[in-house]
Design brief:
single chain; 216 residues; mainly alpha; two-stranded antiparallel ribbon; 11 helices; elongated
């Protein structure tokens, strides 16, 4: 359809030519298709984690948690540890009681190799961070599918995640949980693009073993 512009000259609109923005097309992707794509991307992220030093355990903070998680959690309930370092005062062990401790305990109970349990835990952190960032981006007004995915991948594969995933993954729990903690505040306040929702009470609830240690 031809229209006249402000100067009386004929002009053709973008819609008349059938040229729609890529963002609008992505926004109309069926929800089931989006979820399927996110599932495939999550599996790809997990496969990427498993491919790193396959069949080898990483020096991730507490080796005894990986070898005997039930015994580690039992020792974590007491202030004095007579085994580690020929006897020591516990200052961080209780930070592993949940959810990391039960996760490793269930893996050992299922008879999985230690390296598989460890990579499963690391994959769970990466995937949780990815999906949380994707959902948060959508709630903040990013409607197109691939920009949301880009935000999720940028967050899940940030240098902080990659450098600490195999060395001190317990400190990545608040990183992976942060988007999920912010989401309820965004939903409750009806935050839209261009507005910023703050909820000190919810963000303050995110913690790890180091924060718990310093608070004691």
């Amino acid at each position: 359809m031809t229209r006249a512009d402000s100067r009386g000259m004929p002009s053709t609109s973008v819609d008349d030519l059938g040229l729609e923005s890529r963002a609008s097309k992505d926004a109309r992707i069926p929800l089931a298709v989006q979820r399927l794509r996110l599932a495939v991307l999550s599996i790809a992220l997990a496969a990427l984690v498993f491919s790193q030093s396959a069949r080898r355990t990483a020096p991730d903070t507490k080796l005894d948690l990986l070898v005997d998680p039930a015994r580690f959690m039992h020792r974590a309930m007491t202030l004095w540890d007579p085994i580690g370092a020929a006897g020591q005062l516990q200052n961080q062990a209780y930070g592993y009681l949940f959810p990391m401790g039960p996760f490793f305990a269930l893996g050992k109970l299922a008879g999985l190799p230690p390296w598989v349990v460890q990579r499963s835990w690391q994959s769970a952190l990466v995937v949780a961070a990815f999906l949380g960032a994707v959902r948060l981006a959508r709630l903040l007004g990013v409607e197109a599918f691939w920009p949301k995915v880009g935000a999720g991948l940028t967050y899940a594969l940030a240098p902080r995640m990659l450098t600490e995933l195999g060395s001190i993954s317990s400190e990545l729990m608040p990183v992976a949980a942060l988007p999920w903690v912010i989401i309820p505040a965004v939903v409750r306040r009806g935050c839209q693009r261009g507005r910023y929702a703050r909820d000190p009470a919810s963000t303050g609830s995110v913690g790890d073993d180091s924060q718990a240690r310093h608070a004691s």
